[in-house]
Amino acid sequence: MHENVNSRELAVFLHGWQRNRAFSSRGTEGKRCNAGKCEKLIDTRSAERLFIQVCFQNNIGFTRRKGLHQVSELIKQINSWSDNLNSWKIFQFSHKTGDSEKTAIGNNDDDHTPAKRQKLDSESQVTFRVSCKCSGNTGRMFSLQQWSKTLGIAVAKKTGWKANLKDPMLEIYVQINDVHFVIGFPVTKIPLSKRTYIKHIGLRSTVSWILCSLCDISPCDVVLDPMCGAATILMEAQHSWPHARYYGFDISDSQLVKASENKQLLPDSNSIELLQADVRQLPMKSGSVDVIICDPPFGYKHCSPKTVETLYPLMISEMNRVLKPGGRVVLLTVTDLKDLVLHLVSGQHAHQEIDVESNQVVIRQEKKYVGQEIHTPADLGTVNSEVELDKRLEVASTGHAVDLGNKNGNAEHKNFENSKNDPRSSSKCVEEEVVHISWVLQQCSYLKLGETHAQIMVFTK
Amino acid sequence: MKLLTHNMLTSNIIKGVTKGFPLQIAATDIKVTEVDFNPDFISRMISKVEWPALCEAAESIGHLGDLPKELDPDYEKNEEFLKKAHHVLLEVEIKEGELICPETGRKFPVTNGIPNMLLNEDEVGK
């Protein structure tokens, strides 16, 4: 039975962050694959979930008047229900026995007991539940209950399966939004993104893995996360790239307690070392680090936007000091701070003299930068030239044309407006000690974290 | 904290300290745990560490054994030596104690294997 399926093609899809699509969306993507490879797909570190694909359609055009009828008709037209059910069943057996890791965490279902096996084998007793995720205008046309009920009735009618909300054998996952209509059978009860080795969740495991995957960790590399929190990034890194040395620093005792509890769950906890330190004063020798991976505060939850503006220059400067030439940096930050980061890594700034009370530090520097290399101050009067400046700043600092992303509500621009007519600022800049930081932007990708617009930036020194 | 880590730490973040390396160790609890030996890894790590500082640190806590203080140019081929280096770099761990800045005498406590390298506000100032 097992071999039969291995040679058969299955349609599956992964739900979650797609590395090969530059994480452009947290959406769904269809993929066909051989069932043999399916076993490997289950180890995908960047995906939230894995499904057997029943239906994957774009732009159906549900209408407010007929939507529920349309969806019933769609279900009726799908003829692959029992084929897909068979694929799903066989996959249930094959991966459960092979992969103890997936079943280890809180997964108390007794799929291995003879009774349940029998239940799975006999199609007449199939019970199911519809789990609906609706979003966008299409999703909101009807209530979740209306969608679910209509779908449930249609599936039962078409397949003869029995609805069971409490303890179904099969969960039918449906996603309805303005772009897709997707139906799938989840291959694992627990999302792929749930890891056995992470007890305290910091950054989402999938995102952590993606950050790590972008910085080419080689054996013996010294890898530092200077604001590690519960160390989820390092956990993911150590799990997938075990032969490097990992250092997690955090300023907070309580975060380090979580980090050390997490660390103990790794098969090889020896390669992660934790230290209590401040990102603004990293107690590492200069040039001793190969890779820095960091998810610094966005200025929303852990500190204010004002604090972030004084923190980032100090942070980048210290990172630059401890990083060896040719070293790699991966930063995850919000879109609003992208320009600040790009500016900070692109050359001259003098963090030592920064007036902590002032929130115009960054702006002063920007002015200096602008005045010397791009525009004369007189050019900066209009909103248009600010945008222009942005473009040039990015191109100048990176050598790459990067998309301009989300520009609205960008705090430093407002400040820029305020300070640009202040003659003191530029003269003060010149007096400051100049530290040269020149990182090359290798990649910049947009990522939506819940409601937050974020960027992953990859640099080399 | 393992001695490999110790070899990368500095107290030059303190105002006025120039080198801050190597930090002195005053250990009250040292734990030795067995770690899988990987000769390639150890050879490559040795090329990254400051050997005299490692020996000094190991000696100060009584774990140098008969590890040579001078690095043999052909050390990569000497498995016996690599095993000893492996022991010193990765198996010896400071669980409790203090790290001491060689220039100012400032003490950094090590608790449950985690050094606390945070500074007071008046010590910061590069």
From TrEMBL, chain A:
Matches recorded under PROSITE patterns: N6_MTASE
UniProt xrefs under Pfam families: UPF0020
Gene3D superfamilies in UniProt: Vaccinia Virus protein VP39 (3.40.50.150)
Gene this chain is encoded by: LOC106173626
Ribosomal RNA large subunit methyltransferase K/L-like methyltransferase domain: residues covered: 195-336
Biased composition (Basic and acidic residues): 109-122, 410-427
CC terms in the record's Gene Ontology section: tRNA methyltransferase complex
Gene Ontology MF term list: nucleic acid binding; tRNA (guanine(10)-N2)-methyltransferase activity
Residue ranges, annotated region (Disordered): 99-122, 403-427
Catalysed reactions, as listed in the record: guanosine(10) in tRNA + S-adenosyl-L-methionine = N(2)-methylguanosine(10) in tRNA + S-adenosyl-L-homocysteine + H(+)
Gene Ontology process terms (BP): tRNA methylation
Quaternary structure note: Part of the heterodimeric TRMT11-TRM112 methyltransferase complex; this complex forms an active tRNA methyltransferase, where TRMT112 acts as an activator of the catalytic subunit TRMT11.
Name of protein: tRNA (guanine(10)-N(2))-methyltransferase TRMT11
Lineage: Eukaryota, Metazoa, Spiralia, Lophotrochozoa, Brachiopoda
Organism: Lingula anatina
Known function: Catalytic subunit of the TRMT11-TRM112 methyltransferase complex, that specifically mediates the S-adenosyl-L-methionine-dependent N(2)-methylation of guanosine nucleotide at position 10 (m2G10) in tRNAs. This is one of the major tRNA (guanine-N(2))-methyltransferases.
TrEMBL record, chain B:
MF GO annotations: protein heterodimerization activity
Keyword annotations from UniProtKB, A to Z: Cytoplasm, Nucleus
Cell compartment(s), UniProt: Cytoplasm, Perinuclear region; Nucleus, Nucleoplasm
Database matches in Pfam families: Trm112p
Family matches, as Gene3D superfamilies: 2.20.25.10
Main subcellular location of this protein, as a coarse class: cytoplasm
GO CC annotation terms, alphabetical: nucleoplasm; perinuclear region of cytoplasm
Domain of life: Eukaryota
Similarity section: Belongs to the TRM112 family.
Protein name per Swiss-Prot or TrEMBL: Multifunctional methyltransferase subunit TRM112-like protein
Organism: Lingula anatina (Brachiopod)
